[in-house]
Amino acid sequence: MSMYSLGNDLYSGKKSFNIIGKRKIWYTISLVFVALTAILLMVKPINLGIDFRGGSQFTISGTTNSSQQDAIDIVAEYSGEDNARVSEIGANSIRVQTGELSNEETQEVRSGLAEAYGVPIDDVASTFIGPTWGADVSKQALQSLVVFIILISIVLWIYFRTWTIAVGAIGALLHDLIITVGVYVASGFEVTPATVIGLLTILGYSLYDTVVVFDKVRENTSGFADQEDYTYAEAANLAVNQTLIRSINTSVTGLLPVGAILVIGVLFQGAGTLRDLSLALFVGMLISAISSIFVASPLAVTLGERQQDIKEHTERVLARREAGAELSEEKKA
């Protein structure tokens, strides 16, 4: 079946995936990943970049030597540190990050790197980055996140006129952020300011896809209490199916360019802002596409079914359906 035919069948209701009905499965899977992230954070620290932990950084330009071990050996020889972080930047540059070094150690390492990589000492730039800057960035990012969540909750509540959808959207958003952080911890990727920017950018993308689904949910559930043919959950499930192909298409078209940037950043530019930003975006966009379908809508329905009017309506629909089934059996008999 082509995507076009499948999309038509899903929209018309001829074919349907019981996404809302199997929400306990999705909750379990999501909770497992969230729990794994929590465990990872307890046993394995986040790999913070030099901007957050502070230290010395050396950039070697115009070298034809791409050996990372040479830099590690030089740093260990002159400073006693054996955990230098070395990465390639572009085709002929090397970046070396260490802990905080004294002025004397900085000059010795700089001279040693120039000699090892066959470049003039002027082509080895050294800078010191204090941890205070990273702490300020982290604080401001956290403040921005809190303000964003509060404001977007109010906007969603006003727009959809129900708190259940607002909570479902925010729950999916936090789910995306937590699991993205878990991916970073598990993979050991370095967290830089560009990573933080990428994480904050995920918020908008996650909400965009979620709001598209919820807009259809609102359309399908409007006036649902005036009929007894389908329940609130069934109307919401139809909405998720009707927007499923659109969600997939939107996610694919968004992930392809970001994936291309990620590949270019890793293969041709090494560690850098481009790679860090695109990695956070790629992981976050992929997870948010999944959560808008399997977390946001099921969560909103679960909360909605706790409301008395929806609960009573569901009971009436199921009772009417059961009575109809019994009557059909009697006729057959």
Helix content: over 70%
The structural domain count equals 2
Backbone structural class? alpha+beta
What string gives the helices and strands in order? HHHEHEEHEHHHHHHH
Proportion of residues in extended strands = 5-15%
Name the overall outline: elongated
What is the CATH architecture term of the largest domain?
A: Up-down Bundle
Sheet with most strands: strand arrangement: 2-3-1-4
Individual helix count:
12
Q: According to CATH, what is the class of the largest domain?
A: Mainly Alpha
Detailed description of the structure:
This protein has helices at residues 3-12, 23-43, 50-53, 68-79, 103-116, 131-160, 163-187, 193-221, 232-242, 244-267, 273-304, 308-332; strands spanning 55-61, 85-89, 93-98, 124-129. Helix 7 (163-187) runs antiparallel to helix 11 (273-304), helix 8 packs parallel to helix 11 and helix 10 (244-267) packs antiparallel against helix 11 (273-304). The chain is elongated. The protein has 333 residues and is α+β, with helices and mostly antiparallel strands. The mean pLDDT is 81. A hairpin with a 3-residue loop joins strand 2 and strand 3. The two termini are 39 Å apart. The chain has a 4-stranded antiparallel sheet. It has 12 helices and 4 strands. The protein folds into 2 domains: 3-46 and 133-324, Multidrug efflux transporter AcrB transmembrane fold (Up-down Bundle); 55-129, Alpha-Beta Plaits (2-Layer Sandwich).
